[in-house]
Structures are given as structure tokens and as C-alpha cells.
Specification:
This protein has 14 helices and 17 strands. With 449 residues, the chain is of the alpha/beta class. The protein folds into two domains: 108 residues, Urease, subunit C, domain 1 (Roll); 319 residues, Metal-dependent hydrolases (TIM Barrel). Strands 3-2-1-4-14-15-16-17 form an eight-stranded mixed beta sheet, with helices on one face. Strands 5, 6, 7, 8 and 9 form a five-stranded parallel beta sheet that branches. A four-stranded parallel beta sheet has the order 10-11-12-13. Helix 2 packs across helix 14. It binds zinc ion. The site of zinc ion has 6 residues, from loops.
């Protein structure tokens, strides 16, 4: 058993002072407030529950910064996707393990204690299944184990190149499955999961799956989460309208029984009606504001959606920059830039933007990744601490701690991260950082040689 004492901690019911937390076999077994520290307590300043990163393609971390050069006057998401397809063409399972491991280490250092890997790179470089159909999933799992991050594995079903069952492009050959092959992949992947992993499925998008295939694969989730990319790009919305007369989110709401099991990733381009219906459905909108800005996707109507009671979570998606606070900051700033206003996403009960967004992302992230959350008895011992001696916290009271961290901290101010009761990040550095970073450098240098 380990005991930790915090000057302040964000508990499910709100901020509390002098909090002692007891950890036992990976979970929180006791929480006392107003406690006097004991000599053998590990002492820290400010404790926050770990966030879930609900949308990630870990391998894309290996190409971060390689597509920020102007290639042609109309560069957009689709030209970025061509670069991404060329990058992934040669990746081996060992490369995937090395790149994901660094991405996961960086996530832990930024305050994420769980990641939902939207895993679509299944086949070898020629587009054939590996002898072990879940070879690539195994590489992702190995990376999660090495980093200590909690894993929600979401094998992706990908069969087509566009709406209506269009044939796939050659750059998509490493993603492809038919329904039977996907069922096998799901079955084998499940056998490899670590003890506290969660598991769901991810039909890639309505571009990659037909209505019949979607209906056929949904039972494979077996009660786990179902994630799908939707309405990230206007070209996608227009193609959906041409195919079905309905927009992607509209089609899903009308045809796919969207409820709290679902996470619609991006959901950027919504009509007011779609926005309100999605908010009422119980599904989580999986927002990736840093990637969405990087790819020029558009702006999610977060003000309207949150006002309607919608659930959100955040994801690092392309991993162009892994930064939990940065995702929350970019979400708020996108609304301000659109409307020329300030302080958009606070609420009457939680006026602090940082605290509101953190709490929403915490709850939505847990729902979308099927994981427990919060510094509370019975929950996984997943939390992180902020270094209160950083000048950014000078004179801080609890009403501004999260705003200071999210909007104003220049240097990383997370000093410790615990996952399943183990301290994986100490003094701001992940305990496996050196080994993982060295291997990553070797792998990426070879890929780019
Ligand atoms: Zn994605």
C-alpha cells in the first residue's frame, strides 16, 4: 500500500485541501480530506485525475513536423493524407512499437493516463495479413505496456475508398479487412490485451464502410465503445450528401442507433439540428482541436453543443503535438477566434474555462474509453500532480489553478504521474523516457534515411 498527501486535489465533488489518498493494487482504496500528513506519506502540491486521450493514431507521431511545408497552393487535409500514406508504407511492427511507445510516454508526461488507439494499420507493406492477424495490435499493446499508459484498443474496420462502397486506393492496402477478416482480427486482438485494458471497435468512417458492413460489425463491440470519424471535412459532408442525401452525422443519427456507446470523432461540421441531436444522444464528441487546427478541418460548435448538454472528450489524433492542456486551450480559442469574444466555454456552475473543459473532458473521455476515472475510492489510481512552485501558480487559489495550467503555463508543470498506482513520471520525466526516446530516434532516422 502507498499513501500520498496533497495540499489540494480535484475530487469528483470539487476541490479539497489536505487530501490523503491510499493506493492498493492499482486502485484508490481510501480518500481523506482535511488530513494531517504522516511521515511516510509521499507529499505533493496539486493533484488532478488523469485524462483519457480518446483519439490517437500513435504511428503518426513519427511524421510530426514533416508535413508543415507548403507543397502546392491548395494544400489541405487530403494532400496531408497522401504524405501520411507514404510515411506509413514502410512501417514494420517494430517501428510501430517504437513510435507508439514515445507517443505514449509523451502522453503520460502531459497528463493523459489512458489512450484509445484508433488502430487501422493491420496489414503488411503488400497489403497482406501478417501470419498473426493481430501482429500490429500486439505492437501497440507492447508500447502501452512499456509506457504504463492505460489502453483502450479500437481495431478499425476499413474496406472502401469513399462513400457507397467505392474501391479502396492502393495507399489504403494496409488498412483493409472484409467483415470475416475483421471478426478474426478482433477475436485475436482481444486475447493479447493487458489486464486493465478496454476494448471496442472503430468503423473508420462512412467513407470506409457501407451501411451493411456497419450493421454486421457492430455486434463485435460486445458492449464496448464504438468510435467513428465523422464530418471532419466539408468535402466529406458533400460526398455524404451526394451519396445519401444526408450529412455524415445526420446519417449516423438516423441509421445507427447512436447512444452513449458511441464516440463521433471530430463531428466538426454540424448543422444546429445535428448538433442538438448529437448532444441529446449521449454519444461523446471526440474533439482533437490541435490536429483539427493543423489539418485545417474547421471549428466544432462547442458553445452550442455544451449548452445542449453534449458530452465531449479530447484526443491527440495525429499527434502533431502531444499536449493535454493544449487541446483544451485550442478548443476554447477556436470559439473565441470564430466569434471575436472571450471566455466562451465556462458555465454558470463552473465559470472557470479551464475547470469546465477539464471536467467535461474527464467525464467524456472516461465514457468513450470505458474506463473508471476520478480521485475516488474504487477508481483506478490514475492521477497527476502539478509543480506548485512554478511561478505561474503564484498566489493561486483553487478557482484559477486549471486556468493557469491550461492557458498560461509556458514550461511543462506536471511533475508526477501515477497510473494504476505506480509512479511513471517523476520530476516531469517518464521513467522509461531515455530508453524509449533513443529507440524512437534510431527507428525514425532509419525511416527517413
Ligand atoms: Zn483520426
Amino acid at each position: 500500500m502507498t499513501t500520498l498527501w496533497f495540499e489540494r486535489a480535484l475530487l469528483p465533488e470539487g476541490w479539497a485541501d489536505s487530501v490523503r489518498v491510499t493506493l492498493d493494487t492499482g486502485r484508490i482504496s481510501a480518500v481523506e480530506t482535511g488530513a494531517t500528513p504522516r511521515p511516510d506519506d509521499g507529499r505533493h502540491a496539486i493533484a488532478l485525475p488523469g485524462l483519457a486521450n480518446l483519439h490517437c493514431h500513435g504511428f503518426q507521431r513519427g511524421m510530426a513536423g514533416l508535413s508543415e511545408t507548403r507543397g502546392r497552393p491548395d494544400d489541405d487535409f487530403w494532400s496531408w493524407r497522401e504524405i501520411m500514406y507514404r510515411f506509413l508504407d514502410r512501417l514494420t511492427p517494430e517501428d510501430i512499437a517504437a513510435i507508439n511507445a514515445l507517443a505514449f510516454v509523451e502522453m503520460m508526461e502531459s497528463g493523459f493516463t489512458r489512450v484509445a488507439e484508433f488502430h487501422y494499420l493491420h496489414n503488411d507493406a503488400d497489403g497482406r495479413r501478417y501470419a498473426d492477424p493481430a501482429e500490429m495490435a500486439g505492437a501497440v499493446i507492447a508500447a502501452a505496456n512499456e509506457s504504463g499508459i492505460g489502453l483502450t484498443l479500437l481495431p478499425v474496420f476499413y474496406a472502401h475508398g469513399d462513400f457507397g462502397g467505392a474501391p479502396p486506393a492502393s495507399g489504403q492496402r494496409r488498412f483493409l479487412s472484409d467483415v470475416d477478416g475483421f471478426a478474426t482480427l478482433v477475436e485475436v486482438s482481444r486475447t493479447k490485451l493487458p489486464a486493465d485494458a478496454a476494448f471496442g471497435i472503430a468503423p473508420h468512417s462512412l467513407r470506409a464502410v457501407t451501411a451493411e458492413e456497419l450493421a454486421a460489425i457492430l455486434p463485435l463491440a460486445e458492449g464496448g465503445p464504438i468510435h467513428i470519424h465523422a464530418a471532419e471535412q466539408m468535402r466529406e459532408v458533400e460526398a455524404s450528401l451526394a451519396w445519401s442525401g444526408q450529412r455524415p452525422v445526420e446519417w449516423l443519427l438516423n441509421n445507427a442507433d447512436i447512444d452513449a456507446r458511441w464516440c463521433l470523432v471530430h463531428a466538426t461540421h454540424l448543422t444546429d439540428d445535428e448538433c442538438d441531436r448529437l448532444a441529446a444522444s449521449g454519444a461523446v464528441a471526440g474533439l482533437c482541436p490541435v490536429t483539427e487546427a493543423n489539418l485545417g478541418d474547421g471549428i466544432f460548435p462547442a458553445d452550442r453543443y455544451l449548452a445542449a448538454g453534449g458530452a465531449i472528450g479530447i484526443g491527440t489524433d495525429s499527434n502533431i503535438l502531444i499536449d493535454a492542456a493544449g487541446e483544451l486551450r485550442a478548443l476554447e480559442y477556436s470559439q473565441r477566434l470564430r466569434d471575436c469574444r472571450r471566455a466562451m466555454l465556462g458555465s454558470e456552475t463552473t465559470p472557470s474555462i479551464g475547470e469546465r473543459l477539464f471536467r467535461e473532458a474527464l467525464a467524456g473521455g472516461a465514457r468513450a474509453t470505458h474506463a473508471g476515472t476520478g480521485i475516488a475510492v474504487g477508481q483506478p489510481a490514475d492521477f497527476f500532480t502539478l509543480a506548485a512552485d512554478d511561478p505561474i501558480f503564484a498566489g493561486a487559489d483553487q478557482r484559477t489553478i486549471l486556468d493557469r495550467w491550461i492557458f498560461a503555463a509556458r514550461t511543462p508543470v506536471i511533475d508526477g504521474v501515477w497510473r494504476a498506482g505506480r509512479e511513471w513520471v517523476a520530476g516531469g520525466r517518464h521513467i522509461a523516457r531515455d530508453v524509449v526516446a533513443a529507440r524512437y530516434c534510431t527507428v525514425v532516422e532509419a525511416l527517413l534515411a
